[in-house]
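[Q] Does anyone have a clean structure-token version of this?
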Amino acid sequence: MPIFALATSPGISGLAVVRLSGTGSLNIAKKITKKNKLRPRIANFTNFYDLSNCLIDKGIYIFFPGPNSYTGDDVIEFHLHGSNAVINCFLKNLSKFKNCRLAKPGEFSQIALLNKKINLLQAEALIDLINSETEIQRVHALKMMSDDTTRLYENLRSEIIKILSNYEAVIDFSEDDVQDNIFIQNRSKLLKLKHKIDEIIKKGENTEKIRDGFTIAIVGPPNSGKSSLMNRLIQREASIVSKIPGTTRDVIEASIMLNGYLVKFLDTAGIRKAENIIEKKGIELTNKLLKNSDLKIFIFDYSKPIPNNFLNLFDQRSIILLNKIDLSSKQKFKNLLKLNEIKISVKKNLGIEKLLKLISRKIISNFKIEKDSVTSRLRHQKSLINASLLISNCLKKSKISEIDIAAEDLRLAARSLGEIVGSVNVEEVLDNIFRDFCIGK
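[A] Here you go.
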């Protein structure tokens, strides 16, 4: 069944690309272009017609015959003028062809996966590349897409399967003398394999933050300057600033690029005794974010005493700010001197540059990211951890009566590694991956 979609961003532009793929796509393209033969892999200038032979537009088509195409099926790209009228007319015309329908989000890439043009790891890296906002994200996504990364996981899996075959040979031919030494013969190989996997796990501990960004919760009492600080950091008005306590009831999120890293600031509800159920829910959400955020910025009014209930929330990932130092009325709080608090004035833009430098240092010190990491998602980490654990279980076996269980440990370890690139059945993760794609990819 042919599928189609706009492959470029919607809106007015000089150029728009519509992608068509699937069985029957070639015949549809011939009717639209009025060409009996489409020359492959050449940019061909032509007229585009609807089913009533009325001219839609003039543009270029490129025909990519399957299986040597992105999806593995016939693919035709139509390059049109990027007006909404032209695009809508062209898409409406395609929908009139029998069994030709609009593609679902990520369906082109999903078909490419099913046709073995890309693997699961590369499909995930592709969406990461499309969504990349920083140079670090771009470079890491390309690394994950490379054949070298796929080959690394496939080689690890192959090594496990080779050892597994030795175990299975003993099971099938139990009278063979080799059975007595099977565990000793393969122990060093398994230890090396486990070491390689553990190294990948260690280097990939924080790589998910490259894609998702570092979350920093801004927390404090009402009217301490949380929303003003948020707006100052992102240099635009994202949060409502008001003298009325409890203005922020939901979490406001905004991002900036800081030294190549994506940093997400969360403006939270002021922590105090809630006066209504909506404010109470906002404060509950704030407490939850405190546990899950990578860093926490506690901001207090320099002219007011600091509530004692905040002191037990501080840890090594906390930054303490004393705001409104421009006010004439000031107090010094001896109980904060050991926490390296920063004195700032959001209103006067004092101390903000120092704060940004401290955030950068804390990100680097608390979330070390290895440049040669080959994981990017929690899914990868879980599969690697599971494989390492299963190899450890196998290494604990030393009696021939345990050979069946040891072989099963290796079988499951190989499966765990296979799940990363999609070498085994991973239907349960496909929907979660491709729903994040845009339509037309």
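[Q] Thanks! Anything notable?
[A] The chain has three domains: 3-103, 135-206+374-434, 210-366.
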